[in-house]
Structure formats: structure tokens, C-alpha cells
């Protein structure tokens, strides 16, 4: 069997490679990552059969748990041991970021994805760069603007992979009892949701590498201009 080509560096990674690397990260940290799916699985169980207003309220109520799971996913992706203070701060920042998204997610998921592509990376910034809330938001905006298409495409692709995989399981079990389907959805959420969180955490490294590449490019151009060589 031929060897696979080496993965591209984060600054050049495509959406497909981001998902592939996220799957690899999940496999290497399966048991540590599995509990990340519990908040989403719980939210989905409470959400089954509910109307729009109730869904928004549930999303708001579960935002701190979702933010905490994402913060822990960022620690796994970064290979760091985040302390309680860092996780608490990242959870607070993530909750503040998620609340506006929760108001539109149930009726306009794309708008929520656009919003999170600019602000969602404030959580990995808090965990991995150890900065305060304001600095984390500013940094997240910088990262989001570095390659907005890649950021939005990655978040949208991760969400689509999660929901399509979940829906396939529901279709396969559509002739079973409601309790069986509910249990299958719970297990699917627990197993699949960590991939979505880990993938979004890894997006931080892609965007940070793109910011660094752009700064180096500007630095070279500035150096050329100061030496009289021009672009």
C-alpha cells in the first residue's frame, strides 16, 4: 500500500486536510476526547421535539457547558495542561461568544457560522495564548480575517459532517422504537461531537499560521522598500 503524502503545514492546510488531521487527533486522544460530546448530546436530548423558542432557551442554558467542552478541546489540540483558572476564563469568554450565536443558530445556521468564524477562536486564544477576554476577542478577529473563507468553510464543513453522520444513523433506525432512536442519537452525539470541537480548535493553528505568514510577507516587503529595492 503506497504511503500517503505528508500533510500540508497549517498555513496551507485545506478544509479537507483540517478534517483529516482532526480525525487523527481524535483517534490519538479518543478516551480523553469522548466526554467532550456529553454537553451536545444532552442538549440534543432536551431539544428533541421542541419548538424554536424552547430551542433557543436550551441553547442559552447549555452555553457554559458547551464553552467548557470547547475549552478542553483546545487544550487537547494544543497539547497543553490548562489549569482551572484558564479553563474558567475560557469558559466565560466562550459563553459570552456563544450567547449571540444561540439566538440565530436554530433559524439561520449559516449566519451563526459566519459569526463564529470571527469570534469563536477567542476560546483557543484564551487557552493557548493565556490572554484576557478583550485581548482574546481582538486576536480572534485578527485570526478570522486572516483567511475568512478557510475559517468559515472549516466550521461549516465540521458542522455538516457532524449533522449528516448523525442523520444517517437516524435514517437507518427510523423503523425502530422512539426510545431506540433517542438512545442512538445520544450515542452518536457523544461519539461525533468531539470531532467537531477538536476540528474547530485546530482551526486556530491554521489561522495563526496564516497571520504569521502574512506578517512575514509584509516584513520582507518593508525591508525591501527600506533598502530601496521596492516590491
Q: Can I get a quick summary?
A:
This protein is 80% helix and 0% strand. With 231 residues, the protein is mostly helical.
Structure write-up:
The termini are far apart. The chain has 231 residues and is mainly alpha-helical. The chain has 10 helices and no strands. It has helices spanning 15-28, 30-33, 38-47, 52-78, 84-105, 109-119, 122-129, 133-146, 148-172, 178-226. α5 packs antiparallel against α7 (122-129) and α9 packs antiparallel against α10. The longest helix has 49 residues, at 178-226. The mean pLDDT is 86.
Give the distance, in angstroms, between the N- and C-terminal Cα atoms.
46 Å
**Low-confidence parts:** none
- Measured as a percent range, the helix fraction is over 70%
Total beta strands: 0
Determine the mean pLDDT.
86
| Large-scale geometry | globular
Order of helices and strands: HHHHHHHHHH
- Main sheet makeup: none
The fraction of residues assigned to DSSP E strands is: under 5%
Specify the structural class.
mainly alpha
Rg measurement, Å? 19 Å
How many DSSP helices?
10
Amino acid at each position: 500500500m503506497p504511503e500517503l503524502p505528508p500533510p500540508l503545514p497549517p498555513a496551507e492546510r485545506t478544509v479537507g486536510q483540517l478534517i483529516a488531521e482532526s480525525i487523527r487527533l481524535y483517534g490519538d486522544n479518543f478516551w480523553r476526547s469522548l466526554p467532550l460530546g456529553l454537553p451536545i448530546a444532552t442538549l440534543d436530548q432536551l431539544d428533541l421535539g421542541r419548538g424554536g423558542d424552547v430551542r433557543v432557551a436550551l441553547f442559552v442554558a447549555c452555553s457554559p457547558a458547551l464553552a467548557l467542552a470547547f475549552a478542553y478541546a483546545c487544550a487537547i489540540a494544543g497539547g497543553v495542561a490548562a489549569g482551572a483558572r484558564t479553563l474558567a476564563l475560557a469558559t466565560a469568554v466562550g459563553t459570552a461568544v456563544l450567547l449571540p450565536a444561540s439566538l440565530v443558530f436554530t433559524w439561520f445556521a449559516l449566519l451563526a457560522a459566519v459569526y463564529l468564524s470571527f469570534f469563536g477562536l477567542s476560546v483557543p486564544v484564551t487557552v493557548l495564548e493565556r490572554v484576557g477576554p478583550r485581548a482574546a476577542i481582538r486576536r480572534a478577529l485578527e485570526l478570522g480575517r486572516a483567511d475568512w473563507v478557510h475559517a468559515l468553510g472549516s466550521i461549516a464543513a465540521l458542522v455538516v459532517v457532524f449533522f449528516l453522520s448523525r442523520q444517517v444513523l437516524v435514517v437507518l433506525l427510523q423503523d425502530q422504537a422512539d426510545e431506540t432512536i433517542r438512545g442512538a442519537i445520544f450515542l452518536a452525539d457523544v461519539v461525533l461531537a468531539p470531532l467537531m470541537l477538536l476540528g474547530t480548535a485546530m482551526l486556530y493553528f491554521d489561522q495563526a499560521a496564516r497571520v504569521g505568514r502574512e506578517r512575514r510577507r509584509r516584513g520582507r516587503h518593508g525591508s525591501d522598500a527600506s533598502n530601496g529595492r521596492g516590491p
